[in-house]
Amino acid sequence: MTVEETIRVVLADHGRLAVPVESLNDDTDLFGAGMTSHASVNVMLALEDAFDFEFPEKMLKKSTFESIDAIRSAVAEMADS
Amino acid sequence: MTGVTPSGMRVGLDLVEIAEVAESVERFGDRYVSRIYTDHEITCCKREDRDGPGTTYVMESLAARFAAKEAVLKVLRPVDEQPAWRTIELYRMTGGWCEIRLSGRAAELATEAGLGELSVSLSHEAAVAAAVVVGWCTL
What we know:
The complex is a heterodimer. Helix content of chain A is 49%, strand content 0%. Chain A has three helices and no strands. In chain A, helix 1 packs across helix 2 and helix 1 (3-14) crosses helix 3. The radius of gyration of chain A is 11 Å and the shape is globular. The two termini of chain A are 22 Å apart. By secondary structure, chain B is α+β, with helices and mostly antiparallel strands. Chain B is built from five helices and seven strands. Chain B has a three-stranded antiparallel β-sheet. Chain B has a two-stranded antiparallel sheet with strand order 2-3. A two-stranded antiparallel sheet of chain B has the order 4-5. In chain B, strand 6 and strand 7 (128-137) form a beta hairpin. In chain B, helix 1 packs across helix 4 (59-76). The relative contact order of chain B is 0.24. Chain A binds chain B through residues 16, 37-39, 41-42, 45, 57, 60-63, and chain B through 16, 20-21, 23-24, 27-28, 31-32, 35-36, 66, 70, 73, 80-82, 84-85.
């Protein structure tokens, strides 16, 4: 499974989105698509499980989880660190 | 007026589904709880398990506190940043009501906005917990 596929699975399972995850573009605003702050915490924890790392506090901001593109960038940054 | 923070009252309101919090605790356990809540809050949200040794979480209390943290953020109005959840603490007083205690970046944002003490009210029904936070901005 690719990174993007994994992110989409996590969003489908934990994002509580108002629309199907298949309908999301990579730059779709996830909060605009119905993801609440509480759901974004679950997304964060599920991403940590999926990729086996822990987000540092400096990355725990809304913009880190605002789109699939943003999450992919965060995952790449964690992989490089 | 761009860039100027107006003085006056700020109000934050948030609702959280209790079942959503219960699912998070079930799925992620103490990892979820310890990322969001302070040690004091965790203590306040536990009760003795009547079926045996150990404790269980009071989900409506956790949900109300999460709603309060979100409501505080709406009062602090951070721009593209998110103070750590644990820097916003709901401190339960001996009388039973809660006060908000800020630390770290959350406290800095309050100072920058000229916010003094914040007041909070928590409530819950069977399915939903709610919190309202009010602060007065003096700058």
